[in-house]
Amino acid sequence: xxxxxxxxxxxxxxxxxxxxxxxxxxxxxxxxxxxxxxxxxxxxxxxxxxxxxxxxxxxxxxxxxxxxxxxxxxxxxxxxxxxxxxxxxxxxxxxxxxxxxxxxxxxxxxxxxxxxxxxxxxxxxxxxxxxxxxxxxxxxxxxxxxxxxxxxxxxxxxxxxxxxxxxxxxxxxxxxxxxxxxxxxxxxxxxxxxxxxxxxxxxxxxxxxxxxxxxxxxxxxxxxxxx
Amino acid sequence: xxxxxxxxxxxxxxxxxxxxxxxxxxxxxxxxxxxxxxxxxxxxxxxxxxxxxxxxxxxxxxxxxxxxxxxxxxxxxxxxxxxxxxxxxxxxxxxxxxxxxxxxxxxxxxxxxxxxxxxxxxxxxxxxxxxxxxxxxxxxxxxxxxxxxxxxxxxxxxxxxxxxxxxxxxxxxxxxxxxxxxxxxxxxxxxxxxxxxxxxxxxxxxxxxxxxxxxxxxxxxxxxxxxxxxxxxxxxxxxxxxxxxxxxxxxxxxxxxxxxxxxxxxxxxxxxxxxxxxxxxxxxxxxxxxxxxxxxxxxxxxxxxxxxxxxxxxxxxxxxxxxxxxxxxxxxxxxxxxxxxxxxxxxxxxxxxxxxxxxxxxxxxxxxxxxxxxxxxxxxxxxxxxxxxxxxxxxxxxxxxxxxxxxxxxxxxxxxxxxxxxxxxxxxxxxxxxxxxxxxxxxxxxxxxxxxxxxxxxxxxxxxxxxxxxxxxxxxxxxxxxxxxxxxxxxxxxxxxxxxxxxxxxxxxxxxxxxxxxxxxxxxxxxxxxxxxxxxxxxxxxxxxxxxxxxxxxxxxxxxxxxxxxxxxxxxxxxxxxxxxxxxxxxxxxxxxxxxxxxxxxxxxxxxxxxxxxxxxxxxxxxxxxxxxxxxxxxxxxxxxxxxxxxxxxxxxxxxxxxxxxxxxxxxxxxxxxxxxxxxxxxxxxxxxxxxxxxxxxxxxxxxxxxxxxxxxxxxxxxxxxxxxxxxxxx
Lengths: 227, 731
Description:
The complex is a heterodimer.
Chain A: E1 2-7, H1 14-23, E2 27-32, E3 43-46, H2 68-76, E4 80-84, H3 86-94, E5 100-102, E6 110-118, E7 133-140, E8 144-146, H4 149-157, E9 161-166, E10 185-189, E11 195-198, H5 215-226
Parallel strand pairs in A: 1-2, 1-3, 3-4, 4-11
Antiparallel strand pairs in A: 5-8, 6-7, 6-9, 9-10, 10-11
Chain B: H1 6-11, H2 16-26, H3 32-42, H4 44-47, H5 52-55, E1 65-67, E2 74-77, E3 82-90, H6 92-97, H7 99-115, E4 120-130, H8 138-156, E5 160-167, E6 176-186, E7 201-206, H9 216-219, H10 240-253, E8 259-264, H11 269-280, E9 284-288, H12 301-306, E10 312-317, H13 322-331, E11 335-343, E12 347-352, E13 355-361, H14 362-365, H15 389-393, H16 397-405, H17 414-417, E14 428-430, E15 437-440, E16 447-453, H18 456-461, H19 463-480, E17 484-493, H20 500-519, E18 524-530, E19 534-535, E20 538-539, E21 543-552, E22 569-573, H21 584-588, H22 602-617, E23 623-626, H23 631-643, E24 646-649, H24 658-663, E25 670-674, H25 679-688, E26 693-700, E27 703-705, E28 712-713, H26 714-730
Parallel strand pairs in B: 4-5, 9-12, 17-18, 24-27
Antiparallel strand pairs in B: 1-2, 2-3, 3-6, 4-6, 7-10, 7-11, 8-10, 9-11, 12-13, 14-15, 15-16, 16-21, 17-21, 19-20, 22-25, 22-26, 23-25, 24-26, 27-28
């Protein structure tokens, strides 16, 4: 399977994502933001970081970058697109997924392991995943997911909430919500479930010597669903 | 143009006789630009004029040292053509004035020092010290500094893997912010700051120059008074995004051999970078200041030379490489300008609108800069305190423990390091909160451990032992995570060198740290001195900070401090004498702040450290932690909290009082967890090596059990340990 990771100036998880994708068997290419087309890919990833410094609203400048039109085109044709952390913020700014990411509830950057409960229904990302309560890692300042009542209804009615913050037993509650996200939302799909935006970083937890190994389940499962 | 006189020179921070010397050297009165350049190069921060004669004595060599002090950072060999570049630096004064930007640009500055040498930064650390928690400024300073460090490091994408935070009233008016960076480079691709060759283009890259930070280096060499708020405009503003671009652009340009010399524009900006490169190459340099990219209009040569705008580099390039280099900086949207060339004049010659605006022999600014052998006073060893054993009778160990683990200097600093991205780059295998942070050497089996330490209370009580103690503590921290300690960097934070007491603290601390560094073959490869840490004539406690680096051959052999399995045995390696002077117990429980710090016996320190390394090599140790502040009981409690396990202490043997045993901060000790069946093998190794050890107890489920004391639940202890800082910051 071929993947492409887009590098914006200020991206800083691009290498980590490249390492993770290759580790699990993707043939990955790095694509510079000034390009106008993405090489033939089965998956496009928008990595974490601080694209263009995030000096305006996070992700907003990246959503107007040269490369982004071809990403949108690819996504609209049903191509698989993942945005992690800043990548999620960029997806929101392009309008490919619904909602907004506000400043964390306690106004602090948070870097720690969290658990998410994955939505396994009808999507390439979590369907058949061997573990549905995953210990992943977050590192962000603006990950407090918010959306309008209508959007939330739409997400819920169409089963588009991709993953929710929970505790080790899968309990979704205020206590397991690290950043104030509405309904503990950690990630969402677009309507066709080919696009996934999420705050947690699966690429940082892909080895037993790291803070968790549960990211491995995510990548292995995705690859096997894509085949 | 302003006419220079003695009064103006003094306003620039120069002394009367220094100004006189400038006029004599030049055989004329300097113009204002030249005076600015002299004041920047001759101030304490750039010239090390009070410290140089003492720093020369430092132990700086070993078979692992590739580059010692004198470059942008030190470099050590870690095998397989890999090298680690590292350094620590202070940003104390700016951080007190404007905590967010001061701390942020401290991180930015040290990162540049490391990638200037061709290394990709792989880890950040910091050592930060604040006034008493009850001081009304402390909370906001702490919040600002933490956000500043995070704001910069998180954005540029370098993990912050370890650190240290302390509170002491001596920092009420002068906090300390010391930042350290480690970078990874191939041994044959290290870049230096020594210019070479005539008529080579001098290139300016990075951000544009503004009026920010003018005289920053002079401010760092001045003491604080009531008017400190007026200094705000001299604090630089950081832009981590531009630094990220600069990092990537520089590393891209460094792939081939275009660069002859490179130097970041840190303190004293364009002045010190150009002078240092020329001075090291014994060359002259000619700069055309109208070619410097400026962010503000009508900047004068004086302002351009003294600006401390961040995220800028000066490069001496090979002829003919200009076009290719420009393409790289264009790609990353950074300014690129050829602003001058190297010459054989041995002078720095500046031109502005075709007019010569300064012409100074480089030698006057570097070699001829003043050097002082300042008066210093030898400190006295304080009298030992005679603690009354009958006072202890009223106390409970468990009550004292609760109080100690929730005290400001011992409590968990999770609230701080959770705000630092410590996992970006995907190689962090030991996060903050342990004895040392550890990152894998990307794509290899090796790992690098790093720790920062300082103990101002010990140094204040007795500078010589204090200096030794910190080096030993760093060495122990590195050993405790399973690494072999290789080298250190130091950040020497002291009061006013013109006062013999403060100068004495400096001289003796340096002597102490040098003695330990020599004995342990743990050389100093880089560092920085920060003097004049005083407010209204009151100096801080002497606070030398040591940053140490160690190597783990195979990252899978790393050791952590969390207790692993019920039924395992706990040993203390190293002898407990029971000295309580200067201990946290004496201060927090007995309210006794006097007395000498614990003795440092370098033989025991080395012998015990080597024994632990051997035990780890033989895979006999399951967890380890060095004994430091708060003594054995505090150390073991932290191991319990991390591992979510408890300990049942065996009955103490010997004559020593139990409070002295549990709370003394005697040096050279480690707590280790081993399997029951390993005991004989462990004993054999320790006996053969003549190490003292005590069998302390065994790992149990979830509580700390001491004979004759109420049982403590580990969950409760965690709560005590964690809650103080959160409550303090939230309320």
